[in-house]
Amino acid sequence: MYDETTYHIYAQDRCLYANLGEEEFESTWEMLKVMIDLLGSKYTKDDLNYIKLGPKCGVGGPGRVIPTPMWEEDSY
Q: Is residue 34, in this structure, part of any structural domain at all?
């Protein structure tokens, strides 16, 4: 449990989903990219982003943010 990487998904500065596992993140991320166009909301695909957190540092410790390099493209 403490050795899992988790993800938080944001639309601009609002957290939409927190602490998603790898599989749940992948399906949620794909769903959001499709739904954002269909819903006609104030958000666009460019407003969506996420952070990837490494495993916890000990029991109850904080997760480590794993930065994504600016030049690396997302897998979507």
A: yes
